[in-house]
Amino acid sequence: MKFKLLAHRGGMGRAPENTLAAFKQALADGADGYECDVCLTQDKQPVLIHVGFNKSNIQKATRCSTPLNQLAWKEVQQLTVETSNEPVAHLDDALRFSRENQMPCFVEPKANAPEILPIIVERIRHFEVVHLVSILTFYIRKQLLVDAKRLEPRLQTSAILINPMANFLKAATAIGADRIILGWSRINHFGLYNAFTRTVTRQVKHLRANGIVVEAGFIQTPRDVAWATSPHKAGGIDGLWVDDVPYIRRCLQTI
Question: CA-CA distance, 53 to 138, in Å (whole number)?
Fold first, then answer.
């Protein structure tokens, strides 16, 4: 079985996160899609910077101490990402890249401000990439996904689920999600819970039987890969969310 490999923040283990350079690297690495984080400048331009949800502190990402909501796009264009010389990207850069390369793009809005989704949807329509874009967020912020579908019914939506005790199918169908991502960081609590109950295996199979894509992340280690790709443990995962596509591909080949 071929597993899709999706580049988290463009593949932040391979190039500066959320930059055009990262997207190009993900494409060169053979990723099946990439994710980017979208937030708004003071003048409501959608830019690609990872911030805390509903936060404006961009110092970690750009070394700039001025909050994003106090900076105009013209000022943000002077910033670079992390310790690189890569400029902060605009959402248009990502959507244009996806259109030119027909590469799926997963857009994570980093706020629930009423203006952010209409702005994102307008740019997606402008570049005619509705078929390539999925709006992604954690299930606890599911209203963003519901609103995205309302604004543009053709858009796919992806929900990151972090509760292994939830009813996966009920959660997905309640918001019309096209994709469920089993999300964890460091400790795979889905694997721990499933070792005692086997319910995760059954629930993943139910999702896939109902036409819902199931992916896993954050995949960092060979152990993560082995669990996620085992039909007897994870139940049949379609794809893996990773920082380093070539490394995880080597893990898959070893397994």
Answer: 11
> Tens place of pLDDT for every residue, the chain, 255 residues?
689 999 999 999 999 999 999 999 999 999 999 999 999 999 999 999 999 999 999 999 999 999 999 999 999 999 999 889 999 999 999 999 999 999 999 999 999 999 999 999 999 999 999 999 999 999 999 999 999 999 999 999 999 999 999 999 999 999 999 999 999 988 999 999 999 999 999 999 999 999 999 999 899 999 999 999 999 999 999 999 999 999 999 999 998
Q: Which residues contact 80 (CB under 8 A, 6 or more apart)?
A: 62, 63, 86, 87, 88
Contact 152, 124 (CB under 8 A): yes
Residue pair 73/47 in contact (Cβ under 8 Å)? The answer is: yes
Strands (E), 51-122: 89-90, 105-109
Contact indicator for 19, 86 with CB cutoff of 8 Å: yes
Strands 105-109 vs 89-90: parallel, antiparallel or unpaired:
unpaired
Question: Residues near 112 by Cβ (< 8 Å), separated by ≥ 6?
Answer: 53, 54, 141, 143, 144
Q: 153: which residues sit within 8 A by CB, 6+ positions away?
A: none
Domains defined for the chain, CATH in brackets: 4-254 (3.20.20.190)
